[in-house]
Write a structure and sequence with these properties.
The protein is built from 7 helices and no strands. The chain has 217 residues and is an all-alpha fold. It has one domain.
Length: 217
C-alpha cells in the first residue's frame, strides 16, 4: 500500500497542476488568436504588439515567434510558427509521462499486494484447521489483501480518465494552433507578394529616371 500511496500522491499532484494550467488558458486562446489575426489584416505592428502583450499564454508566444522577426521570407515565417508550436505543445503535455506510469504501475502493484497477502494468509493454514473456526482469521486476511487490488484499480482508473481529458485538450489546442498559424501565414504571404509587386513596379520607374538623367547630361 505504501507504493500505491506514493503513486496516488503523484497522480493527484499532476492532475491538480494540469487542471490549474488548462483553466487559465482554455478560455483565452481563441480570443488572443482572433485579436492578433484581426489586427494583422490591418497593421502588422499592431498584431505584433497584441501578441507580445499576451506572451504569458501559449497562443501569444506562438504567434509572437513569427511576428517578432524582421521581414522574414515566407518560409522562415512558417518555420518559426512550426517550431514554436512544437515547443508549446510539449509544455502542454507536461505530466503525461507521470500519469502513464501511474496507470501502468498502480494495478500491477495492487495485484502484487493481493498476491503477497494471499500467500501470507494461506501459508498460515494447517490441514487440521480446515474444518474448524480457526480459519476465520485467514478469511479476514484474504479480504484485507484484496484491498490493495481495489486501491490500485481506483488510482489507475482516475488517472486514466484525467489523462484522456488532458490529451483531448492538447489535441484541441493543436488544432487551434494549426488554424491560427495557417491564417497568419496566408496573410503574411499576401502582404509579402503585394510588397514584392510594389517593388517590381517601382524599379523600372527608377531605371527610366536614371536613363533620362544620363541623356540630359
Amino acid at each position: 500500500m505504501w507504493p500505491l500511496l506514493f503513486l496516488s500522491v503523484l497522480a493527484f499532484g499532476t492532475i491538480i497542476d494540469r487542471i490549474w494550467f488548462w483553466s487559465r488558458i482554455l478560455t483565452k486562446e481563441r480570443e488572443v488568436a482572433g485579436r492578433v489575426l484581426e489586427a494583422a489584416r490591418r497593421e502588422w505592428a499592431a498584431a505584433k504588439d497584441i501578441a507580445q502583450r499576451a506572451n504569458k499564454l501559449p497562443m501569444g508566444r506562438f504567434l509572437q515567434s513569427a511576428l517578432s522577426l524582421e521581414t522574414p521570407d515566407p518560409e522562415v515565417f512558417r518555420l518559426a510558427l512550426e517550431t514554436s508550436a512544437d515547443e508549446e505543445l510539449t509544455v502542454m503535455r507536461k505530466g503525461e509521462k507521470g500519469l502513464e506510469a501511474v496507470i501502468a504501475l498502480a494495478p500491477m502493484l495492487g495485484l502484487l499486494g493481493t498476491v503477497l497477502g494471499l500467500i501470507n494468509s494461506l501459508g498460515s493454514i494447517r490441514l487440521s484447521d480446515l474444518a474448524s473456526d480457526s480459519t476465520s482469521g485467514t478469511v479476514l486476511g484474504i479480504g484485507e489483501a484484496l484491498i490493495s487490488t481495489a486501491a490500485g484499480l481506483v488510482i489507475a482508473i482516475v488517472s486514466l480518465a484525467f489523462y484522456r481529458l488532458f490529451q483531448g485538450f492538447v489535441f484541441g489546442q493543436a488544432k487551434v494552433f494549426r488554424q491560427s498559424g495557417s491564417e497568419l501565414e496566408l496573410l503574411y504571404r499576401q502582404a509579402w507578394s503585394a510588397n514584392e509587386r510594389a517593388q517590381a513596379q517601382a524599379k523600372p520607374d527608377g531605371v527610366v529616371a536614371e536613363v533620362r538623367t544620363g541623356h540630359e547630361s
